[in-house]
Amino acid sequence: MKIVVLVPQALLILMTGCSFQLVSPPARMVNVESARSAAPGETVVGAKGAAHSAVFDAGAAIGTAEVRHGVVPGVEVDAEATYVRVIDRDYPDIDRNIYAARGGFKMSNAGGWAALLAGVGGGVSPAAGGFLAADVGGSISYPNCYAVPFLGGTLFASQPVAAKRVEFRGGDGSVVGYDTANTTLGFGVSTGVEIPLDRARCRTGMTPARIQIGLGMDVLRPVDGEPRLIPATGDTSMQLTTQAKTMATMGLAAGVEFPF
Q1: Beta strands of 28-113 (E only): which ranges?
Q2: Which of 54, 56, 66, 152 is deepest in the core (most CB within 10 A)?
Q3: What b/e sequence results for 168-178 when a residue is b if at least 16 CB atoms lie within 10 Å of its CB, and e otherwise?
């Protein structure tokens, strides 16, 4: 029995061997972008979508809306809102919706081929509660006005807030396992290509309309995970505890951005 329920406070994850475990995820769910930042005074809006999965586990559909604004040369501030829907047929009584938001910045070098990124955010899962998260990372890319390959990496920490105990129930309605999310540390890596759609604007140093396509992976490790399993006898006084386990998901992502 397995289930992965991505939630911005609690990526509900049911691991192998009837082990039930929740982890608290990062605030940024989709990270496919080059190192280039928005030009001073320039505002860029965009949308991204991703599909994540893990071997033998449930998947998730992710949608993000974002806005970037150039402050000074090489520096932009950004904000994004994210919606996640877990795709899985098991435990249909658990709410699979997740809502998150994040604010941050990107600081690029003079050549626009390397950047530092950081941000803070949070979210809520109706089933598992809320969370706060912070992340820091970097990106490198090859600047040009035709096809920009990029590679990025992020470290993050996520802390549940007002976490709720989630119960996993069998077909007869009985509780077969339960868990509550706890502090989670992790990292993500992404790679892909960014395709400028307005080469004339790109050559002037401004941000062109662009398409982004990439592949990403996230690895999450709960600090003190204690998923609990109800024995087959139904005796809830006999609770078994398993150790925290490392989670990993992979996915494809695509996005589009337009400057104003």
Answers
A1: 43-53, 59-72, 75-87, 97-108
A2: 152
A3: beeeeeeebbb
What are the Cα distances from residue 198, in Å, to 161, 222, 260? 44, 44, 13
**Per-residue pLDDT tens over the stretch 127-174:** 999 999 999 999 999 999 999 999 999 999 999 999 998 887 777 777
pTM given for the model: 0.83
SS (H, E, C) 110-129: CCCCEEEEEEEEEEEECCCE
CB atoms near residue 232 (< 10 Å): 9
pLDDT, tens digit, for every residue of 28-43? 989 899 999 999 999 9
Domain boundaries, the chain: 3-259
